[in-house]
Amino acid sequence: MVNVLFFAHLKDVVGKEEVSVEGNEWNVARLKEKIAADYGLEGLESVMTAVNEEFADDETILSEGDTIAFIPPVSGG
Known about the structure:
By secondary structure, the protein is an alpha+beta fold. The chain has a single domain, classed as Beta-grasp domain (Ubiquitin-like (UB roll)). It contains two helices and five strands. It is globular and about 30 Å long.
């Protein structure tokens, strides 16, 4: 299992700050596809991803117990 953290509007759409997913040995892209399908999230391709507090790309391989954070772009003025 891996833990997935959601921030900003992603947390509102999912209705939770954190979920656990069976994603061991997956890459980040596959995890994004699963999360998008399970929770109806759109636009995950544009979010920043961190794995264990280090920025990661879509090809990063996940390991048991990893914490993945999805951080949407911030806007403001």
